[in-house]
Structures are given as structure tokens and as C-alpha cells.
Amino acid sequence: MEKVGGRVGRPSRRAWIALGLGGLATAVVQLVPELRLGYRNAGAHVALEATATVICGLVAFLLYGRYRRTQRLRELLLVYAMGLLCMTALVFVARPALIGNATASQDAVWVALVTRLVAALLVVTAAVMSRTRIRRATHPARDVLALAGLFAAIWMLVLIVGWLLPGLLDVGAWTQDWTRPTLVQQPLFLSVQLIGLPCYGLAAFLFTREASRGGDELLGWLGAAAALGTCAGVNFLLSPTLYTEWVSLGDVLRLGFFGLLFAGAVREIHDHWVTEATAAALNERRRLARDLHDGVVQELGYIRSRALCQRGPQEEFALEIVACADRALGEARQSIDALTEDPDEDLAATLERAAKEVGQRYGVVVHLSLAIDVTYTPAQRAALVRIMREAVSNAARHGAPDAVWVELTNGEMTVRDDGHGFEASASARPGSFGLTSMRERATSVGAVVEITSSLEGTKVMATW
Questions:
Q1: In which element (H, E) is residue 192 found?
Q2: At residue 432, what are phi and psi to the nearest 5 degrees?
Q3: Model confidence over 375-400: pLDDT tens digits?
């Protein structure tokens, strides 16, 4: 449980780190005027937009896979947002620069600006509508056409009203050494950027909160990316180099934004393959459990029933066969339970289910007192369940108790009964393999088993 809680806390720390680094870098640049505008390098913008194209396309593809599984509106809106960012970078920035026109036309820049604003609105809407589901079948071709249609509609709208739109940037006075100009933004251009800025800030908060509550790794990376994107937006307001040949801190932070998206995509791919491998292992375990149940358990049950029918001189021998069959059936059922149990089930719930099953099989009352805030490893969990089953079945078979008590606290599990107990030297007899098995299982996972017995009953205590 502790491990899970630590993992859930990561998204919040990640977002704060991204926001802190972005804010610190912004403050440093503003305090040092010489750093406000960097180098004139059109190729750097080409590389940045090419990176944006690949990463946004990858993230959109992964999110669409999620959407097909969950049918949530959040994933679909994020697909459209990432798709718009991908198409904007590819068509309106990277392509003009690659064919030799480093400075995009005014219409192209307005299309890119408006498209990125729409993407920001989609992102914050997705963050707000995290639980809404869509009751319709997914259709990749239809969704791709819808995305392309949305992009085309923005393009056509800008072309139609393009004659009304002012220029985006004016080059003001140059610095004294004539190396850096002063870029002056038009009010409308500035207003569009201001609308998009709080969208990423709110999305960062909502995504991070959702990831911290539910442990969703991809949402956590999206929250951190949105936080860094907010810092990049602030820098573009102060030094608008996004649509020029100049490179500033805003471009560096924007690259970090895409880097965090890429990290989230890698994590999503990793989790997908881990899930696939876990599902394959669970299916194989269920198959083995079915084979044990339909084969070994059925045959042992038949042997037991036939032995019970024996009378006469061979009756004592038949009873020994029945006892052996009972032990074998118990082991087989323990193996089946181990193969079919949910690895994510809490230890207390697993112990409760197993103890009731053993108690019902042997007709003994089992009282449970199980704490839920217990720390353990997966190996300790499996060993403790087997030790408990062995202790309860031994008590029921050999101690003739009225009741058995199973108690679980942090670091300790106790199984005690009110039966007639056994002699201390019994643990050394050949027939006491169950007691030896409990000790060996405990030792293999760093635990210790202590067994005490008297005329008032037996107590098995495992500590780890």
C-alpha cells in the first residue's frame, strides 16, 4: 500500500518541478535583458516543429487507443488537441521552412495561432470533463475526417477574414550593437495568446490532481507538460519569437513541453506492454488452475470416495488413504487459489476469503480480525496466505477445535485455536511436514514462524 501511495504522489511533484524550473528560468531571463532574445536560427525552428509533429502525432495515436477502450470524451478531445498541434507544426511551420521560405506568410501564422488556441481550449475542456463518456461506436476513419475537417474549417475561416487581420509583429528599435531587435506584438495577436495561457495553467492543475488521485501516469505527464507550456506562453508574451527566425527561452521551454509529452508517451507504451504481459500470465495461470481442477482434484476426489467405501480388514488402510487424499486435495486447492487470485487484492481480503473457504470445508468456525493498513511484499503476501491455510487446516484436522481465530496486524499474523493441541516433539516427526513447510515458507520471504501448543490449543505466529 505504501508503494502505491508513493507512485500516486509523483505527478504533483513532477508538475511542481516543471513549473518551478520554468518560472525560475523566466525570472532569470527577465532580470538579465541580454538573455531575453537569443539567436537568429531558422533551422532551430524547423527542428522544433519537426519534433512537435512527431511527438504530438504519437501522443494522439496513444490517446486514441485509450479512447477506444474507455469511450471517454476526455481522451477524444485530447486526440483532437494533439492532432491540431501536429498538423499545425507540420503544414504551417516545418514545410514552408523546408522549401526555403523561413518566414511564413501572415495567413499561415494566423492559422497556426488560431489552431493552437483551439487546441488549448480543447485541452482545458478535456481536463474539466474527465468523467464524461460517449455512447457511440468508435470509427477511426470518421474521427480522422472530423479532425481534418476542423483543421480545414479554421484554415478557411482565416483565409476568408484574412484581409481584416492586422500584421502580427513589428520590428521596433534594435539594440545598440544591432544584434537583437525589439519585437512588438499587435494587440489582437497578444489577446489571442492571453486567452490560451490560462487554459494550459488550469489544465495543468486538473490533470495533476486527477493523476494524483487515480495514479494515471500519462495524465501526470500531461499535467507537467501543461505547467511548462504555461511558462513557455508567458515567455512568448514577453518575447514573441515563435513565428520569427529568432530563438528565445520560450522556444526552449516549448521544447521541454514536447519532451514531457514524449516521456508520457514512452511511459504509456511501457505500461501497455506490462499490462499485456500481466494479462497473458493471468490467462496461463487460469488455464493451469482449470487443468488442476478438472484433472488432479477430480481424481483425488474419486480416490477419496472409493477409500471411504472400504470396510473390513482394509478399513484402517483405507482411512490412511482418505487422510492422504485430504492433504493432497488441500494442497491442490491451495495451488488453484494461488493461480486464480487477484494480485492486486488486499492481503486482508485474501486471508478472509481463504480462511472462510478452509473453515467451511472442515466444518470449523473461523473468527477474523484483519487490519487493512498492512505493508508487505508480493512474495510475503503469497507466503502468509499459504501459512494461514496450513495452520487452519491443521487445527481443524488434528486439534478438533470449537473455533479458530485469525488475526492480522502490521508485521504480524496469528492463527490460534482452542483444540487439544499436540506435543512439542511432534514437530520433529516425519508426519509433521506441514509445520516444517510453514517455517520454510516464512524463511524464504524474510519472516519467522513460531509455533506453540498446549492442552488449551495451538498458536501459530508469523512475523515479518
A1: helix 187-214
A2: -100, 40
A3: 898 889 888 998 998 899 889 888 88
